[in-house]
Amino acid sequence: MMKIPLKESMLEKRGSLDKNQILEKSEQIKKRLLGLEQYKNSKTIMFFVSFSSEVYTHSMIGDALKNKTVVVPKVMHHGIEPSVIIDFDSLIQGKFGILEPIEAMSIAYKNIGLVLVPGIVFDKTGHRIGYGFGYYDRFLAKVPKAIKIGLAFDFQLVDKIARETHDVPVDFIVTEERVVECNK
To answer: Could you give the C-alpha distances from 71 to 32, 62, 170, in angstroms and in order?
Structure first.
C-alpha cells in the first residue's frame, strides 16, 4: 500500500477509537513500556506529548517525572528541540495544538538515553510513517546512541512500509499486546 492511503486509512481507524479505548490500550502500553529494562535503565527520557487519538502519554510523563529527567519536544525553526520539563502544568498549546514547554530548557543530546517516538504506522523493522514533516527523523539522526521506542496501538503495526533514505527506524515498538524488537 502506498504511504498516503495507508496513512489516511490508519488515521481514520485510530480516530474511530473512543476516549476510553484509547486510555485502556494506552494503560497496557504503559505497563509494557515500564517493564522494559531499556526504560528502567534510562535516566533521561524524551516523551512525545500525545494529542488527538495518539497513544496517551500524559500519565506516563507524570509517572516518569517522579524519578527520571523528562524531556519533551518543542517545535522551533522547522524542527523539534528537546526541552527538559519539571512538571506537566508548565506546558502550553504549541504550533500544532500539541502541548509543549513555553520556553525550551536545553539538554545535551548525548544525555538523552531513550526517545519515545509517535507514528501513524509502524512496520516490524522499525520504520514508520509520521505526520510528514520529518521532524522526528531529523531529530533522531542527532541522537544515534539513544534507544528509540515507537508507541502504537497494535493495529498500527503492518508488515512493511515504503521507506526513504532519511528514515530513522525505531529499535522497539510497544503496543497494548506486545513488544516488537525491530530487526536491525
So the answer is: 20, 12, 18
Q: What is the distance between the alpha carbons of residues 136 and 62, in angstroms, rounded to a whole number?
A: 22
Q: Assign residue 160 a region: left if phi > 0, alpha if psi is -120 to 50, beta otherwise?
A: beta
Domains in the chain, please, with CATH? 3-181 (3.40.50.10420)
Please give the full DSSP string across 72-113, using - where no structure is assigned.
EEEEETTEEEEEEES-GGGEEE-TTS-EEESS-----GGG--
CA dist 149 and 141 (Å) reads: 14
Taking the C-alpha atoms of 159, 51, 64 and 34 in order, what is their torsion angle to the nearest 10 degrees? -30
Number of Cβ within a 10 Å radius of residue 66: 7
130 alpha-carbon distance from chain centroid: 10
Please report how many Cα atoms fall inside a 13 Å half-sphere around the Cα of residue 70, on the Cβ side: 23
- Torsion (CA) 33, 39, 44, 46 in degrees, nearest 10: -30
Question: Does residue 38 carry a pLDDT above 80?
Answer: yes
pLDDT digits (tens, 9 = 90+) for 39-75: 999 999 999 999 999 999 999 999 999 999 999 999 8
181, exposed or middle or buried, with CB in 10 Å at 0-12, 13-18, 19+?
exposed
